[in-house]
Amino acid sequence: MVTLFAILLLKSDRSVFADHDWEYWSKYAFEIAYSKKISFSLEPQFKFKENFQEFYYSKTYLGFSYKLSKSVTIKSYYAYKIKKDKTSWRAGNLLYLDPILKFNFQDIDLSNRFRWEYEFDKKELVYRNRLKLEKSLYKSVTPFIQEEIFYSFLSHQFEENRFSLGCSLKALKWLHFSGEYMLNGKKIKSSWQNANVLVTNLGFYFDF
Asked: What pTM does this model have?
């Protein structure tokens, strides 16, 4: 995964920050804990491209989470998306299954999300593997690094790679915020195209 990121960087003739389009992804999470193991969530997100000027994508997740143990969590989602295709908008329906493993090693948190994504309209199954490293500082500030790869069983190839650096802030018990820079690479035909992405995530967490 890290090798793929290095290749994407080396293929750029100039600075990676200057060559590609800038996008902004705005994410929100509303999570209600029913118990220590069960929670429900609503997660809308909005995407802008062409240097933040064009709104082109929206997806809303409705999810359920069950914590099997301290290290294992299972999440499932239904998602409805709309995406702008040239001049028209197309809708899509998706299902997700997320087994997540979490470990702590010498005060560094390691998590791996094994995401299975199925889009009904395309009849496409995609496997997404996200590896994340993070370390808490001062109990409320947590810098992180993560990478996610996408493999399509329809095209039988890797189609996307996301590499991110960021930081999350736990402002209050029920309010979390994170910001990150992402290098998003997508395979278009036989070549990779990259975009610089700024991502913000505002989360609200409540107990019954």
From this structure: 0.88
